[in-house]
Specification:
By secondary structure, the protein is an alpha/beta fold. 38% of the residues lie in helices and 9% in strands. Helix 13 packs across helix 21 and helix 16 runs parallel beside helix 21. The two termini are 40 Å apart.
Length: 542
Amino acid sequence: MHPGSDRIENKLASFTCNKGYQKLPPLFHEAQRQPMKLLATLEIKAERRFGWSGYIFTWKAKHGTLFLGVIILCLVMASYILTRDQQKLLLTPSPFQYSTTTNNEESPELDSAEIEGDADSSPFNWLERISYATPELFTETSDSKPQLMPRRLPGREDLVKQEAHIFSVIPQKFLQNVKNHCWYTRYTGTASTDPYKKNAYFLHTKHFQTIFDYLKKVIWKHLQHRGNEHYRLRCLPYFYIIGQPKCGTTDLYNRLRLHPEVSFSIVKEPHWWTRKRFGIIQPWNGFHDRYLIEDYLDLFDLAAHQIQSQIANSSAEQLIKSNMVIGEASASTMWDNNAWQNFYHRTVNGEPPYLIQDFLHAVLPAAKLIVMLRDPVERLYSDYLYFISANKSVEDFHEKVKDSLQIFDGCLMHSSLRSCVYNCTVNSAMPVRLQIGLYAVFLWDWYAVYNQNQFLILRLEEHAANLKKSMHRVFEFLSLGNLTEQQEAAIINNPASNTRRPKDKSLGPMLPETRRILENFYRPFNEKLALLLDDDSFLWEK
């Protein structure tokens, strides 16, 4: 039984559809639109190796080659379409079509009484009044509707079997006289050994070479020497800023790192738990070069050296040798489980058998977790402006939102909500990252593993409006020491980070119709989030 299992109250009522949903033009059935161009150009170049006396043979050869190319193209496209249809993404009509028109005689709005009276058939009726202690997996039938049912949480033995090397490196108990999660491991190198030369972050991120060169020079003096044996202090984070992207995590990171008792990893966002431990993705070579847990631990060596110095300088009477805590701020930790389909076995219901928090809890059951959220509608627009590099416009955003809603709803026709949220194929197909704003889904799955009191949930809107209050909440949550007035002023007055770029500001706000569509989509999830957190401010109602 995981500690979060018995702490979730059965207070999450069913979703009901909103009457704001209207039909959009079908995404995959229009004759004129081709959203997916699988093979834009088929270029066949035939070299002449022989000379011919006439042109008849040449004419036949060219046409024969073209005919063969057309056949190959048709076979490739047929194979692709049939493969995708197995995942219910192509050739499958969506039950919900979105449209920018409000009065459509062919697609009249449903009356609100019809929607409320048919609440059980809503595709968003996903949170049932059921305890996490329920062991059964939810297996959907063809007549059932998407629901978010409790997961069957994997046991430690199963997790160790999947990631044996991680558990062979990280101990189950840490130093008792150090606030952070640290332990000693035997160091087999010499004073001239470079322990970082094979570090994957060093090999693939050259702009960190200076830092690793510095660590190589000073590591020997930060070891604990006992005769001919040498011991190296290893540490994992005391807390994680786990999400979400474009919700102010960078600003929080830049303020927290100014606190004298806080240190962070060398890389702000290592993305190790969600991406790097699975390797680098190359289209022509698949997954390779998995980043080892030792590569991840190296990122905390600067902080470990500080803690080691505090331990060495502490007196024998001190119960706590170091109050320093280490943080990690990968904004993908809360939501990104896209790699599971390539590494873990598929389940009957298409849901991932393991999530990031399963492994993180197994090695760091006492970790503190900070989550920053914002209005998911605004988050999506900010995400679009930040990550789309060319041809940005409010009209383009509107079209991408419609297409994404179409794809996501198409998935819900045949799969559970959790399966669609964690489906790499669906997430990759959507032009905008719609799923990241489904905060209630992710947080519910995290609450199943960690205790609720291990989370601090912040709203960007409140953080920006009252920085002092927001930072004091963080300091209290992490049990940090008191600051001088000068130290606190430096943190509060630090310039805001990662604000919207001037060229993006010039685009202005999203179209009112886009906002209406997104508000209707996110509203049921926001309602569940507000219930989960017992805080109506997470409804984001103006």
